[in-house]
């Protein structure tokens, strides 16, 4: 029974790659130094995996930015606009690579970056390959060879990893009309085959081709393409052992494709989809082949310790059917999505030993894979029996811990009634009542919540944490910032004010820190894109709100103005989506627990005199399951979680929600079902086109389509905003239209914020006059 790993975090356990890349981009270190740093991380990773006892260790899982972009460079899928960087110059590979990832703007050159999008349902983002008609692929980068040879020097014959050719095409985009990117397969395969032959020649025995698209809804044509691609590869490199990796979902219908590919080993994700083991063994001819099944039993997407007993059950089932030589053990997917090393969490006040004992990060997951293989083997079982006992104790301690299980919380969730999801009255009645109660003008103006998080504000928090600033002094400074922003908002004439969120580090962390059932790590970083990493908080137990979380600052802010002050909260689905979550209860249950906590906050804000409350849900869309068939169930509970959080207030209290980076077309009825009185959305980059979905659906509630892009320091002119508002008025009834920026302003500076908002107000006045 071989053990293997699909990929290891590339950022370095102390985010060394982030530092080195950012220094290189800033011109502070040389290219050679960056390359040296990267090499060190890679070598360290190989060492770590070898020491853990992993038999097939991946290479080429490292990337300076993104592994899909690596693949594009490998096969020379470099869009024309970057060719100017190649011509005549040698040693430009890394420059081109970063230009594709981040764009270039220097020495008179101005080239846009390639598009970036989410990698399946993870928070990792990949660079979307661009394809044109008659594209010719040509081997360009040698990175995969360099890494293989480098590990070989260390005495490790690695298993090189590549995005498989079909997923590579499917994950990309046609940049021209009149062809399908799948038609490029044959030409693409010539490059793949050339690379594979080269690897074989250099002594590679195994290669891993990642085909995660095998877990998506595929057309029949796409299924056939998988067969054709692998038949060709098989024929071209009979000597190489081919491992095709699928992950993140069940294989579903595609199981008849993946199990019949002419390969040596199929990897499946048994964490996300344990049932596919039975499916493969019972409903396909896999048993009759001589192929190996790689069991992804250790969760690569979460931070919990593996339950050995459960995993051993799956392993035993596979071994019984296939024999131990035809079984491999691995994490469910690349460990890219796990934080690096739990051993670095040394501060017991941050992470208590009891909770830490339930967790495993990437390094610990390697041990789990190896120990499982030893426990599954009768010859070595005895030597590892201790580990099984320890694991059992840890799992049991978690199952029954008082830290996790709170009967009041569980009872409250089971006591939820249908009417708890509904506001007192329907929207049309509420709208009339709110019109009366809030006395807002036509086209009310507002912002999305945050104002610039200046270095000064951040420094306050850092000083508070270090103990250099007392809580009282910190509070005084925050109060000052809030007051200043209120005076300023009043001066420029905004209708619904915000307090500015100066007291918040992050829209999830701020709430996580105040809810029970949450812990934080010090080093639990995971790559999000490029050098950007996130440190998701961990929900380990039943979530409860011991005390009001925002009432103090929102109440304070309201006391400083006669205008309406908007209360500002993060919604249950977003809190869930941007955290590591429990694997011992359905996501829905956790979402409802959070929703009840937010509901209490909403009603407390109402009691404190806040009449407008915004519950942000930017992550609703990204929570969508990979398979369309699973959407309805998710959307049902996600929408209900939001409604549960919002519905505790009276008719006159106005509930807002906010969403960004969203397409709404295919989920518009669910957005409508959230029944927020007002929704603010990001639309300016699409020039209001996103509004069509709302118009076509005849979306009944009020909408604030963002009138300018907050991702750029650019100040929009009054005319531009008027133009967008007029466009919006073509599709939205005037009485339903709000005016606001695309999103919060925390990443902006004050100068451009002030100028932009003044123009926004001036534009609003213009369209009010015309109305
Ligand atoms: N209220 C948050 C802010 O203004 C919303 C952020 C978001 O949508 N991502 O920063
Ligand atoms: Zn936003």
From TrEMBL:
GO molecular-function terms, A-Z: 5-methyltetrahydropteroyltriglutamate-homocysteine S-methyltransferase activity; zinc ion binding
This protein's name: 5-methyltetrahydropteroyltriglutamate--homocysteine methyltransferase
Residues bound to Zn(2+) 1: 660, 682, 743
Cofactor-binding details, from the entry: Binds 1 zinc ion per subunit.
Pfam families per UniProt: Meth_synt_1 (PF08267), Meth_synt_2 (PF01717)
Main enzyme class: transferase
EC number: 2.1.1.14
General function of this protein: Catalyzes the transfer of a methyl group from 5-methyltetrahydrofolate to homocysteine resulting in methionine formation.
Active site: 711 (proton donor)
């Amino acid at each position: 029974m071989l053990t293997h790993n699909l990929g290891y975090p590339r950022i370095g356990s102390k985010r060394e790659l982030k530092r080195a890349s950012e220094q290189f981009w800033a011109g502070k270190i040389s290219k050679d130094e960056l390359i040296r740093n990267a090499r060190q991380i890679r070598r360290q990773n190989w060492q770590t995996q070898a020491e853990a006892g992993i038999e097939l260790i991946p290479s080429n899982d490292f990337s300076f930015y993104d592994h899909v972009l690596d693949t594009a460079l490998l096969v020379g899928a470099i869009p024309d606009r970057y060719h100017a960087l190649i011509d005549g110059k040698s040693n430009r590979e890394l420059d081109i690579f970063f230009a594709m990832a981040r764009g270039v703007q220097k020495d008179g050159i101005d080239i846009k970056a390639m598009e970036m999008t989410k990698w399946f349902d993870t928070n990792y983002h990949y660079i979307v390959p661009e394809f044109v008609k008659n594209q010719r692929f040509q081997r360009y980068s040698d990175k995969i060879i360099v890494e293989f040879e480098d590990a070989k020097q260390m005495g490790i014959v690695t298993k090189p990893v590549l995005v498989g050719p079909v997923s590579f095409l499917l994950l990309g985009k046609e940049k021209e009309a009149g062809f399908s990117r799948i038609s490029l397969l044959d030409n693409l395969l010539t490059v793949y085959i050339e690379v594979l032959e080269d690897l074989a020649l250099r002594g590679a025995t195994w290669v891993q081709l990642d085909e995660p698209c095998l877990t998506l809804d595929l057309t029949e044509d796409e299924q056939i393409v998988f067969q054709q691609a692998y038949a060709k590869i098989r024929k071209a490199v009979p000597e190489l052992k081919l491992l095709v990796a699928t992950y993140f979902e069940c294989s579903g219908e595609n199981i008849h494709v993946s199990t019949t590919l002419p390969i040596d080993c199929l990897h499946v994700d048994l964490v996300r989809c344990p049932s596919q083991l039975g499916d493969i063994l019972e409903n396909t001819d896999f048993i009759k082949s001589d192929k190996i099944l790689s069991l992804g039993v250790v969760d690569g997407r979460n931070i919990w310790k593996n339950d050995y007993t459960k995993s051993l059950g799956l392993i035993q089932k596979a071994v019984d059917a296939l024999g131990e030589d035809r079984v491999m053990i691995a994490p469910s997917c690349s460990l890219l999505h796990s934080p690096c090393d739990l051993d670095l969490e040394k501060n017991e006040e941050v992470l208590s030993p009891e909770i830490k004992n339930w967790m495993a990060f990437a390094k610990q997951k390697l041990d789990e894979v190896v120990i499982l293989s030893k426990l599954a083997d009768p010859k070595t079982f005895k030597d590892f029996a201790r580990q099984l006992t320890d694991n059992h104790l840890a799992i049991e301690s978690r199952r029954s811990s008082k830290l996790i299980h709170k009967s009041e919380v569980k009872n409250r969730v089971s006591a939820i009634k249908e009417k708890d999801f509904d506001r007192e009255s329907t929207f049309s009645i509420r709208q009339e009542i709110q019109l009366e109660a809030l006395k807002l003008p036509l086209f009310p103006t507002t912002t999305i919540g945050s104002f610039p998080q200046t270095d000064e504000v951040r420094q306050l928090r850092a000083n508070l944490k270090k103990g250099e600033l007392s809580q009282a002094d910190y509070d005084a400074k925050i109060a000052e910032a809030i007051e200043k922003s209120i005076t300023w908002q009043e001066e420029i004439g905004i209708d619904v004010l915000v307090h500015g969120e100066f007291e918040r580090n992050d829209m999830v962390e701020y709430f996580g820190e105040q809810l029970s059932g949450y812990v934080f790590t010090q080093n639990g970083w995971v790559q999000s894109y490029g050098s950007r990493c996130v440190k998701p908080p961990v929900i380990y137990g039943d979530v409860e709100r011991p005390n009001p979380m925002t009432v103090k600052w929102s109440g304070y802010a309201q006391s400083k103005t006669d205008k309406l002050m908007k209360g500002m909260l993060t919604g249950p689905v977003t809190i869930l989506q941007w955290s590591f979550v429990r694997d011992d209860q359905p996501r829905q249950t956790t979402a409802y627990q959070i929703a009840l906590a937010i509901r209490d906050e909403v009603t407390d804000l109402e009691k404190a005199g806040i009449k407008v409350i915004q519950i942000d849900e930017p992550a609703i869309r990204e929570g969508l399951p990979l398979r369309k068939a699973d959407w309805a169930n998710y959307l049902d509970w996600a929408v209900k979680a939001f409604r549960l959080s919002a519905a505790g207030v009276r008719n006159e209290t106005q509930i807002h929600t906010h969403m960004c980076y969203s397409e709404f077309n295919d989920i518009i009825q669910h957005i409508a079902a959230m029944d927020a009185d007002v929704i603010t959305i990001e639309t300016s980059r699409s020039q209001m086109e996103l509004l069509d979905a709302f118009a076509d659906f005849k979306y009944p509630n009020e909408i604030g389509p963002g009138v300018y892009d907050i991702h750029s320091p650019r100040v929009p002119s009054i005319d531009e905003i008027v133009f967008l508002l007029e466009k919006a008025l073509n599709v939205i009834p005037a009485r339903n239209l709000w005016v606001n920026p695309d999103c919060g302003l925390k990443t902006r500076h004050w100068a451009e914020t002030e100028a932009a908002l003044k123009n926004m107000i001036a534009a609003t006045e213009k369209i009010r006059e015309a109305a």
